[in-house]
Amino acid sequence: MAQRGPTPGLPKSLVAYITLTGAAGAACLAYLVPRMDWGASEAGEAALFTLLIVVAGSFPLPVAPKVKADMSTAVLFGSALLLDAGTAALAAGIGVPIYTFFLRYRGDKLRLPWYKYPFNAGAAAIFVGLASVVFHQLAADNEVLTPAVLAAAAVMYLANTALITGAASLQMGMNPVRFWWMGTRENGPAEVALMAVGLVGAMAYRENPWTIVALIVPTAIIYVAFSGLARANTRLEEAAERLKALQGQIATNAKLASVGAISLDIAHQIKNPLTILLGHLESLESCLASDDPCQRHVTIATTAGDRINKGTYREFYVHGISKAVADGPA
Predict the structure, then answer these.
(1) Would you say domain 12-214 falls under CATH 3.40.50.2030?
(2) At 159, which helix (H) or strand (E)?
(3) What are the extents of the domains in the chain?
(4) What is the Cα–Cα distance from 152 to 172, expressed in whole angstroms?
(5) Percentages helix, strand, coil for the chain, rounded to the nearest 5?
(6) What is the pLDDT of residues 68-106, one digit of tens each?
(7) pLDDT digits (tens, 9 = 90+) for 122-159
(8) Dihedrals φ, ψ of 289, to 5°?
Protein backbone atom coordinates (compact mmCIF):
# COMPACT_ATOMS: atom_id res chain seq x y z
CA MET A 1 0.00 0.00 0.00
CA ALA A 2 1.37 3.40 -0.96
CA GLN A 3 2.00 5.70 1.96
CA ARG A 4 1.01 9.36 1.92
CA GLY A 5 4.06 11.60 2.33
CA PRO A 6 4.25 15.19 3.53
CA THR A 7 2.52 17.87 1.51
CA PRO A 8 4.88 19.00 -1.30
CA GLY A 9 6.53 22.28 -0.41
CA LEU A 10 5.49 22.10 3.26
CA PRO A 11 8.48 22.75 5.56
CA LYS A 12 9.33 19.91 7.92
CA SER A 13 9.35 22.38 10.80
CA LEU A 14 5.75 23.30 10.01
CA VAL A 15 4.71 19.64 9.84
CA ALA A 16 6.32 19.09 13.24
CA TYR A 17 4.60 22.20 14.64
CA ILE A 18 1.19 21.09 13.37
CA THR A 19 1.72 17.60 14.77
CA LEU A 20 2.78 19.05 18.11
CA THR A 21 -0.26 21.36 18.22
CA GLY A 22 -2.64 18.51 17.47
CA ALA A 23 -0.96 16.33 20.11
CA ALA A 24 -1.12 19.19 22.65
CA GLY A 25 -4.82 19.61 21.94
CA ALA A 26 -5.41 15.90 22.43
CA ALA A 27 -3.43 15.99 25.67
CA CYS A 28 -5.49 18.98 26.85
CA LEU A 29 -8.70 17.06 26.22
CA ALA A 30 -7.27 13.93 27.87
CA TYR A 31 -6.49 15.99 30.97
CA LEU A 32 -9.70 18.04 31.19
CA VAL A 33 -12.45 15.68 30.00
CA PRO A 34 -12.01 13.02 32.76
CA ARG A 35 -12.38 15.79 35.36
CA MET A 36 -15.82 16.72 34.05
CA ASP A 37 -18.92 16.07 36.15
CA TRP A 38 -20.50 14.23 33.27
CA GLY A 39 -24.28 13.91 33.24
CA ALA A 40 -27.29 14.40 31.02
CA SER A 41 -27.23 18.16 31.54
CA GLU A 42 -23.52 18.44 30.71
CA ALA A 43 -23.95 16.22 27.65
CA GLY A 44 -26.84 18.36 26.44
CA GLU A 45 -24.83 21.57 26.90
CA ALA A 46 -21.83 20.07 25.14
CA ALA A 47 -24.03 19.06 22.18
CA LEU A 48 -25.75 22.47 22.15
CA PHE A 49 -22.56 24.50 22.12
CA THR A 50 -20.94 22.18 19.59
CA LEU A 51 -23.91 22.83 17.31
CA LEU A 52 -23.69 26.58 17.93
CA ILE A 53 -19.98 26.58 17.09
CA VAL A 54 -20.64 24.67 13.86
CA VAL A 55 -23.46 27.02 12.82
CA ALA A 56 -21.55 30.21 13.72
CA GLY A 57 -18.45 29.06 11.83
CA SER A 58 -20.32 27.68 8.82
CA PHE A 59 -22.26 30.88 8.18
CA PRO A 60 -19.82 33.80 8.53
CA LEU A 61 -21.50 37.21 8.60
CA PRO A 62 -20.96 39.26 5.41
CA VAL A 63 -19.73 42.70 6.48
CA ALA A 64 -18.33 44.03 3.19
CA PRO A 65 -17.90 42.95 -0.44
CA LYS A 66 -15.82 39.76 -0.39
CA VAL A 67 -15.29 40.13 3.38
CA LYS A 68 -16.97 37.89 5.96
CA ALA A 69 -16.70 37.84 9.76
CA ASP A 70 -16.34 34.47 11.47
CA MET A 71 -18.71 34.65 14.45
CA SER A 72 -17.45 31.44 16.04
CA THR A 73 -15.15 33.40 18.39
CA ALA A 74 -18.22 34.73 20.22
CA VAL A 75 -19.61 31.24 20.77
CA LEU A 76 -16.22 29.82 21.76
CA PHE A 77 -15.69 32.55 24.34
CA GLY A 78 -19.23 32.16 25.65
CA SER A 79 -18.72 28.42 26.06
CA ALA A 80 -15.47 29.03 27.96
CA LEU A 81 -17.40 31.24 30.43
CA LEU A 82 -20.46 29.02 30.82
CA LEU A 83 -19.16 25.45 30.65
CA ASP A 84 -16.55 23.71 32.69
CA ALA A 85 -13.15 23.52 31.05
CA GLY A 86 -13.49 19.94 29.84
CA THR A 87 -16.90 20.47 28.24
CA ALA A 88 -15.85 23.75 26.62
CA ALA A 89 -12.62 22.27 25.22
CA LEU A 90 -14.46 19.20 23.94
CA ALA A 91 -17.14 21.30 22.21
CA ALA A 92 -14.44 23.47 20.60
CA GLY A 93 -12.27 20.50 19.58
CA ILE A 94 -15.24 18.88 17.84
CA GLY A 95 -17.11 21.90 16.50
CA VAL A 96 -14.21 23.78 14.89
CA PRO A 97 -13.01 20.99 12.55
CA ILE A 98 -16.62 20.17 11.66
CA TYR A 99 -17.41 23.67 10.43
CA THR A 100 -13.97 23.91 8.79
CA PHE A 101 -14.86 20.76 6.84
CA PHE A 102 -18.38 22.06 6.14
CA LEU A 103 -16.96 25.20 4.50
CA ARG A 104 -15.61 22.97 1.71
CA TYR A 105 -19.17 22.46 0.47
CA ARG A 106 -20.42 26.02 0.81
CA GLY A 107 -20.70 28.34 -2.18
CA ASP A 108 -17.08 29.52 -1.79
CA LYS A 109 -15.77 25.93 -2.13
CA LEU A 110 -12.95 26.66 0.29
CA ARG A 111 -10.34 23.93 -0.18
CA LEU A 112 -8.18 23.91 2.91
CA PRO A 113 -5.05 21.74 3.07
CA TRP A 114 -5.38 18.55 5.09
CA TYR A 115 -3.21 19.76 7.96
CA LYS A 116 -5.64 22.59 8.79
CA TYR A 117 -8.12 20.17 10.36
CA PRO A 118 -5.96 18.65 13.13
CA PHE A 119 -4.29 22.00 13.70
CA ASN A 120 -7.59 23.87 14.08
CA ALA A 121 -9.01 21.16 16.34
CA GLY A 122 -5.96 21.09 18.58
CA ALA A 123 -5.62 24.88 18.74
CA ALA A 124 -9.32 25.37 19.57
CA ALA A 125 -9.20 22.80 22.37
CA ILE A 126 -6.10 24.49 23.81
CA PHE A 127 -7.14 28.15 23.82
CA VAL A 128 -10.76 27.49 24.84
CA GLY A 129 -9.71 25.06 27.56
CA LEU A 130 -7.11 27.50 28.93
CA ALA A 131 -9.57 30.39 28.92
CA SER A 132 -12.18 28.30 30.73
CA VAL A 133 -9.69 27.11 33.36
CA VAL A 134 -8.51 30.67 34.04
CA PHE A 135 -12.06 32.01 34.28
CA HIS A 136 -13.38 29.33 36.60
CA GLN A 137 -10.32 29.58 38.82
CA LEU A 138 -10.67 33.35 39.23
CA ALA A 139 -14.43 33.89 39.09
CA ALA A 140 -16.32 33.93 42.39
CA ASP A 141 -19.33 31.60 42.47
CA ASN A 142 -19.11 31.27 38.67
CA GLU A 143 -20.50 34.77 38.17
CA VAL A 144 -20.15 35.74 34.52
CA LEU A 145 -19.70 39.49 34.88
CA THR A 146 -16.48 39.61 36.90
CA PRO A 147 -12.92 40.87 36.29
CA ALA A 148 -12.03 37.24 35.59
CA VAL A 149 -13.62 37.74 32.16
CA LEU A 150 -10.76 40.05 31.19
CA ALA A 151 -8.18 37.48 32.20
CA ALA A 152 -10.01 34.73 30.31
CA ALA A 153 -10.31 36.93 27.21
CA ALA A 154 -6.62 37.81 27.34
CA VAL A 155 -5.59 34.16 27.73
CA MET A 156 -7.87 33.02 24.91
CA TYR A 157 -6.70 35.76 22.52
CA LEU A 158 -2.99 35.33 23.28
CA ALA A 159 -3.10 31.53 23.07
CA ASN A 160 -5.09 31.60 19.82
CA THR A 161 -2.96 34.22 18.10
CA ALA A 162 0.30 32.66 19.36
CA LEU A 163 -0.62 29.27 17.87
CA ILE A 164 -1.67 30.81 14.54
CA THR A 165 1.39 33.08 14.45
CA GLY A 166 3.70 30.12 14.98
CA ALA A 167 2.22 28.21 12.04
CA ALA A 168 2.07 31.23 9.73
CA SER A 169 5.61 32.39 10.51
CA LEU A 170 7.00 28.92 9.81
CA GLN A 171 5.08 28.67 6.54
CA MET A 172 5.94 32.17 5.25
CA GLY A 173 9.29 32.65 6.93
CA MET A 174 8.27 35.86 8.70
CA ASN A 175 9.33 37.24 12.06
CA PRO A 176 6.68 35.86 14.47
CA VAL A 177 6.59 38.99 16.64
CA ARG A 178 6.10 41.22 13.61
CA PHE A 179 3.46 38.89 12.18
CA TRP A 180 1.61 38.81 15.51
CA TRP A 181 1.65 42.60 15.77
CA MET A 182 0.38 43.04 12.21
CA GLY A 183 -2.46 40.58 12.86
CA THR A 184 -3.32 42.23 16.17
CA ARG A 185 -3.53 45.68 14.61
CA GLU A 186 -5.75 44.39 11.82
CA ASN A 187 -7.97 41.85 13.59
CA GLY A 188 -7.59 42.65 17.30
CA PRO A 189 -10.54 45.07 17.58
CA ALA A 190 -12.83 42.64 15.76
CA GLU A 191 -11.81 39.80 18.10
CA VAL A 192 -12.46 41.98 21.15
CA ALA A 193 -15.90 42.89 19.79
CA LEU A 194 -16.74 39.22 19.19
CA MET A 195 -15.67 38.32 22.71
CA ALA A 196 -17.93 41.09 24.01
CA VAL A 197 -20.79 39.53 22.06
CA GLY A 198 -19.93 36.17 23.61
CA LEU A 199 -19.96 37.75 27.09
CA VAL A 200 -23.41 39.26 26.53
CA GLY A 201 -24.69 35.93 25.22
CA ALA A 202 -23.24 34.11 28.23
CA MET A 203 -24.91 36.54 30.63
CA ALA A 204 -28.27 36.05 28.89
CA TYR A 205 -27.84 32.28 28.86
CA ARG A 206 -26.97 32.25 32.56
CA GLU A 207 -30.18 34.12 33.34
CA ASN A 208 -32.33 31.87 31.17
CA PRO A 209 -31.02 29.19 28.78
CA TRP A 210 -34.07 29.66 26.55
CA THR A 211 -32.72 33.03 25.46
CA ILE A 212 -30.59 31.09 22.97
CA VAL A 213 -33.78 30.02 21.21
CA ALA A 214 -35.21 33.55 21.43
CA LEU A 215 -32.09 34.94 19.75
CA ILE A 216 -32.28 32.59 16.76
CA VAL A 217 -34.90 34.62 14.86
CA PRO A 218 -33.28 38.09 15.22
CA THR A 219 -29.87 36.57 14.48
CA ALA A 220 -31.21 34.97 11.30
CA ILE A 221 -32.82 38.28 10.27
CA ILE A 222 -29.54 40.13 10.80
CA TYR A 223 -27.65 37.48 8.82
CA VAL A 224 -30.09 37.65 5.89
CA ALA A 225 -30.05 41.46 5.94
CA PHE A 226 -26.25 41.63 5.96
CA SER A 227 -26.06 38.98 3.25
CA GLY A 228 -28.36 41.01 1.01
CA LEU A 229 -26.41 44.17 1.75
CA ALA A 230 -23.13 42.43 0.98
CA ARG A 231 -24.49 41.13 -2.34
CA ALA A 232 -25.70 44.63 -3.25
CA ASN A 233 -22.32 46.10 -2.33
CA THR A 234 -20.59 43.42 -4.36
CA ARG A 235 -22.70 44.24 -7.41
CA LEU A 236 -22.00 47.95 -6.87
CA GLU A 237 -18.28 47.30 -6.62
CA GLU A 238 -18.34 45.20 -9.79
CA ALA A 239 -20.27 47.96 -11.60
CA ALA A 240 -17.71 50.51 -10.43
CA GLU A 241 -14.89 48.30 -11.73
CA ARG A 242 -16.63 47.94 -15.10
CA LEU A 243 -17.16 51.71 -15.23
CA LYS A 244 -13.50 52.29 -14.45
CA ALA A 245 -12.48 49.88 -17.21
CA LEU A 246 -14.88 51.60 -19.63
CA GLN A 247 -13.42 54.99 -18.75
CA GLY A 248 -9.95 53.67 -19.52
CA GLN A 249 -11.19 52.30 -22.84
CA ILE A 250 -12.81 55.65 -23.71
CA ALA A 251 -9.57 57.47 -22.90
CA THR A 252 -7.62 55.05 -25.08
CA ASN A 253 -10.08 55.46 -27.96
CA ALA A 254 -9.89 59.23 -27.62
CA LYS A 255 -6.11 59.05 -27.97
CA LEU A 256 -6.44 56.80 -31.02
CA ALA A 257 -8.98 59.19 -32.52
CA SER A 258 -6.49 62.03 -32.03
CA VAL A 259 -3.86 59.96 -33.81
CA GLY A 260 -6.31 59.40 -36.66
CA ALA A 261 -7.04 63.12 -36.95
CA ILE A 262 -3.31 63.90 -37.03
CA SER A 263 -2.84 61.24 -39.73
CA LEU A 264 -5.53 62.85 -41.86
CA ASP A 265 -3.93 66.26 -41.46
CA ILE A 266 -0.50 64.91 -42.40
CA ALA A 267 -1.96 63.18 -45.46
CA HIS A 268 -3.68 66.40 -46.48
CA GLN A 269 -0.51 68.44 -46.07
CA ILE A 270 1.47 65.96 -48.20
CA LYS A 271 -1.08 65.29 -50.94
CA ASN A 272 -1.94 68.88 -51.80
CA PRO A 273 1.54 70.03 -52.88
CA LEU A 274 2.28 66.58 -54.30
CA THR A 275 -0.78 66.77 -56.57
CA ILE A 276 0.33 70.16 -57.88
CA LEU A 277 3.86 68.82 -58.45
CA LEU A 278 2.58 65.77 -60.33
CA GLY A 279 0.42 68.01 -62.49
CA HIS A 280 3.40 70.14 -63.49
CA LEU A 281 5.44 67.02 -64.22
CA GLU A 282 2.71 65.69 -66.53
CA SER A 283 2.58 69.02 -68.32
CA LEU A 284 6.36 69.05 -68.66
CA GLU A 285 6.38 65.50 -69.93
CA SER A 286 3.84 66.33 -72.65
CA CYS A 287 5.95 69.26 -73.79
CA LEU A 288 9.17 67.29 -74.14
CA ALA A 289 10.06 65.26 -77.17
CA SER A 290 10.23 61.52 -76.78
CA ASP A 291 13.99 61.53 -77.46
CA ASP A 292 14.71 64.43 -75.12
CA PRO A 293 17.31 63.43 -72.48
CA CYS A 294 15.22 65.18 -69.80
CA GLN A 295 12.29 62.86 -70.49
CA ARG A 296 13.94 60.11 -68.46
CA HIS A 297 14.32 62.33 -65.39
CA VAL A 298 10.74 63.53 -65.64
CA THR A 299 9.50 59.92 -65.82
CA ILE A 300 11.52 58.96 -62.76
CA ALA A 301 10.15 61.95 -60.83
CA THR A 302 6.57 61.16 -61.89
CA THR A 303 6.90 57.51 -60.85
CA ALA A 304 8.34 58.49 -57.48
CA GLY A 305 5.55 61.02 -56.97
CA ASP A 306 2.91 58.38 -57.74
CA ARG A 307 4.49 56.01 -55.22
CA ILE A 308 4.50 58.71 -52.56
CA ASN A 309 0.88 59.55 -53.35
CA LYS A 310 -0.25 55.92 -53.05
CA GLY A 311 1.77 55.37 -49.87
CA THR A 312 0.35 58.51 -48.27
CA TYR A 313 -3.17 57.42 -49.15
CA ARG A 314 -2.65 53.94 -47.72
CA GLU A 315 -0.66 54.75 -44.58
CA PHE A 316 -2.09 58.09 -43.51
CA TYR A 317 -5.43 58.75 -45.17
CA VAL A 318 -7.10 55.32 -44.97
CA HIS A 319 -5.57 54.53 -41.55
CA GLY A 320 -6.52 57.95 -40.20
CA ILE A 321 -10.14 57.68 -41.36
CA SER A 322 -10.50 54.19 -39.87
CA LYS A 323 -9.23 55.39 -36.47
CA ALA A 324 -11.25 58.58 -36.47
CA VAL A 325 -14.48 56.80 -37.45
CA ALA A 326 -14.08 53.50 -35.53
CA ASP A 327 -12.51 54.80 -32.32
CA GLY A 328 -13.60 58.39 -32.15
CA PRO A 329 -17.36 57.93 -31.43
CA ALA A 330 -16.69 55.17 -28.81
Answers:
(1) no
(2) helix 148-172
(3) 12-214, 248-326
(4) 30
(5) 80, 0, 20
(6) 667 888 889 988 888 888 888 999 998 888 887 777 665
(7) 899 999 999 999 998 888 776 777 888 899 999 999 99
(8) -75, 160
